[in-house]
Amino acid sequence: MSIIRPYGDTTGDGMVQLSFTLPIPHDKRAEGAAVQLANTMGMDPALVVHAKAMGPDFTFFVVYGPVNHLVDTGKVEVVERDYPLLSPKEVNLAIRKTLRRRLTIVGACIGTDAHTVGIDAIMNIKGFAGEKGLEYYRELKVVNLGAQVAVPELVRRAKAEKADAILVSQVVTQREAHVLNTKEMSAAFREAYADDARPVLVAGGPRFTEQMAGELGVDRVFGRGTTPGEVASYLVDALVTRRRQTPSKRSA
Amino acid sequence: MVPVTRTVKKLDLDPVTVRKARSLARKAGRPIVDLARQHTTVSVERAVLRLAGLAGADTEGIPWVNRLADTVRADVGLEHGLALPVWDALVRGEAEDLSVLAQKAATGSVTFRLPEGRDAVRARSAARKATAAGLKRVDARRRERDRLIKRHGDPEQRPWIYLIVATGDIYEDIPQAQAAAREGADIIAVIRSTGQSLLDYVPEGATREGFAGTYATQENFRLMRAALDETSRELGRYVRLTNYASGLCMPEIATLAGLERLDMMLNDSMYGILFRDINPIRTFVDQRFSRQVHARAGIIINTGEDNYLTTADAVEAAHTVTVSQLLNEYFAKEAGLEDWQLGLGHAFEINPDLPDSFRLELAHAMLARQLFPEAPLKWMPPTRHMTGDVFRGYLLDGFFNLVGAMTGQGILLVGMMTEAVVTPWISDRDLALQNVRYVMGAAGNLHEDFRPEPDGFIASRARQVLSESVELLEEIVDDGLLNAIGDGTFGLMKRPQDAGRGLDGVAKRSPEYYNPAIELLEEAPPPPSSSSLPRTPADVRAKGRRK
């Protein structure tokens, strides 16, 4: 079944909940305006279950109702995971057997972003969502440069550490800063390295979508909810499995 | 009459252990204070120029204090302080005032020297006079605050409700801050642009462009304080304003806060080192000066222990919070701050999936309350385990508020259910305040009935954290605090003392070193003031002026 609708308590009822604020005082007209908005969004009938004045100039609404839109799951576009998910043991084994040395990963929050929560969730031994971070993997050498690292400094450290992969995180962003910062980073690495010697570039953060890799000039983008295990599995796939098939200078 | 929400002596803590913890914190902190007294930084020296009235920036936006400081440093070095060479030039008649001198210095038409003998005496006395005038303005602003609090009154309830505004545009911030105050905020914090902590100058003027926050500038401070004064009048309640004295310019920002009557400043002894990779010595020198200014200005500092728990595990690292609070207390008191000015931080960051997580949070919050009974503790909401599930987040914030109510916190930073999703929407703020009001209304006095079993889970956990804190403090005393920071003891960050940002702005003081601001701050007792965080509104009326 590829055509579906939202599910409230009966198959096919199409029920959704919605909350929003309108910049008008709370009165009957405001509630009518909320219904009109919900109708336009495809909710019909729209039931305003809650309306509350927030100060003299704003009203907050909660609206319930069925949407008349259908979803065709056959037409949904996603980046499917194109690498096998490995356990930490399997990651370590793959690196040890094939590479015969540790993989070096350098991570940082670049630009003005001071929020290390993303990079820490992936890299710190503590990890995220019950999975240990990359520091836990014996065959990974992890260098976490922390917050507000300038791009030239990141390139310098990547060279000094002979990095196999670069992980950058961008959490807080205004006016597309996360996109600009990441583009600056990927351009700097492309300039500083020969194509076949460049480390694998990975960007992560809640504002990125996986489809943005090409635009950003990185090899992979990870979005919200990514676990350390997914990143480690990807790195093994990119740096160990695939490299064996197409040998390059880096594997020397 | 609002009852006192405090949980003093509810935990059976061994007074000998508590005393030992304090004395170890003193031992660990003492060498750092000595180090701070042996060094100066570019920002401490620029703060002197700001106190003496030098303001404004050149056409490129570089402040005149930076232009002047850089020229003097190039001519005579930083190690003697800027006051002697600068006021020597003024006494010599190189310029009629500081701002003309700065302009001349920028064009290279004046050469600085280190005065000796009678010239040095004259320069010293002129520098002292000019700086004292600035401190007088700070004192006047403090008296003004006392007057306004008396006129408008303090919030009825505790904890005080602290809300954040962060649009990047001061003219957008102002109506938002006023609206937040009308909705019930007692304290407005204007978050800074993320890049500012690493700027080695303070931007000038009213600013409309910032990243995830608004630049801290003297003009932005003035505009926001004036707007909140208007709102305080309207609401009949003094609304406090908070900003950040952190990063590379913290001494200057502390000074500007004193000059513009900000009421609270985020000011942590180690935050810049750990989370901004600022050089440890730079930080400790800047810290001491900024705290001396805050002490003088009657500003309540907010420390940043919550940050450790965003990187380390909130259960395993609970004792590092206590250790940091004890160190912050020592450094604060050494710099002249009083108990009522210590907004020591802690946070609700334990993984909610952990069994008994709420009981652990209660234990940690009660421990902090009992260790620092006179301090207005700052209680900070969950961030790390806010997943984007806003419904679960709203529940978590409710439990956070409940701990705040049950343990008599002084300042409650209101948690947003959209933490980690978006910067707060107007509806997020409204829902968050409803959450706070419901919990305070329903359970605000629960502390009267709540006494943990003397040997129960909560009391034992508090004792365990305290004893782990003592063990860690012992290690720090043996190892030296700078080494402990280098080893990653706090927040898992490793920060060696010979690295980090801003190191090139540090100099060891020479025997000729003279800093009139530090001299004045250290010799004068703080001016009379009644602005202590009151336990009840009645207290503040009864207390009156304290000599």
Automatic annotation (TrEMBL), chain A:
Domain B12-binding stretches: 102-246
The organism's place on the tree of life at top rank: Bacteria
Residues of the signal peptide: none
GO MF terms, alphabetically ordered: cobalamin binding; metal ion binding; protein dimerization activity
InterPro entries: Cobalamin-bd, Cobalamin-bd_sf, KamE_N, KamE_N_sf
UniProt protein name: Lysine 2,3-aminomutase
